[in-house]
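Students often ask why inverse folding is considered easier than folding. One informal answer: many sequences map to the same fold, so there is more than one right answer. In these notes we will look at a single instance of the problem. The structure comes first.
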């Protein structure tokens, strides 16, 4: 089992920045990818960014490329999402998720609210 706890959400004005953290515990040696997803009411959860745990390769949704940066600190078992140039449409509950080898994203955090005011 892997447990994930997000932090760092809040309210920010458009153009501002926030940094989300996702602390992993438990069987962290089984993690292959860490990802960030977001969801707004009435919409499906959407992919935001992912990082491979060992190599650090990164992947982004087109909507956040050039504005968001995902990173990880293996020693601290923590993933980060640096969000810059935030827009009102970035408002959502953000979830981190862990993908273990041979599976899909099967561990999820509780979510953290990000609100961007115009």
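Output (designed amino acids):
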């Amino acid at each position: 089992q892997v447990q994930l706890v997000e932090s760092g959400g809040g309210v920010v004005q458009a153009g501002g920045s926030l940094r989300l953290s996702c602390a992993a515990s438990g069987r962290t040696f089984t993690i292959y990818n860490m990802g960030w997803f977001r969801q707004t009411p009435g919409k499906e959860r959407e992919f935001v960014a992912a990082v491979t745990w060992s190599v650090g390769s990164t992947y982004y949704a087109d909507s956040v490329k050039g504005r968001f940066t995902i990173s990880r600190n293996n020693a601290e078992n923590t993933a980060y999402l640096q969000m810059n140039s935030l827009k009102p449409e970035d408002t959502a509950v953000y979830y981190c998720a862990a993908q273990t080898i041979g599976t899909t994203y099967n561990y999820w955090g509780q979510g953290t609210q990000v609100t961007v005011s115009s």
